[in-house]
Amino acid sequence: MACDLLTACQxxxxxxxxxxxxxxEMAVELVTVLLSKELVVALAKANTHGAVFTVMSGDHFTxxxxxxxxxxxxxxxxxxxxIKEKSKG
Length: 89
Hints:
By secondary structure, the chain is an all-alpha fold. It has helices spanning 2-8, 37-45, 49-56, 63-88. The N and C termini lie far apart (81 Å).
């Protein structure tokens, strides 16, 4: 419709016309990518929204990455407890 209006106003509106074809394929690529181990550690250390934004460089992150970052301190404490228990016994 806009191309026809441009053509009616004596512009080359026909050059802007496009044929749209429906794709039957679903998009396979992911919107977000899982974070590296270093970024998960940095995300676990971030304690403010600004720090999280800085770590992520403004990019998106998945809920799984947030769970990994939240579990990291508890996991480290558990590992330290197991090492102490192993050295005692």
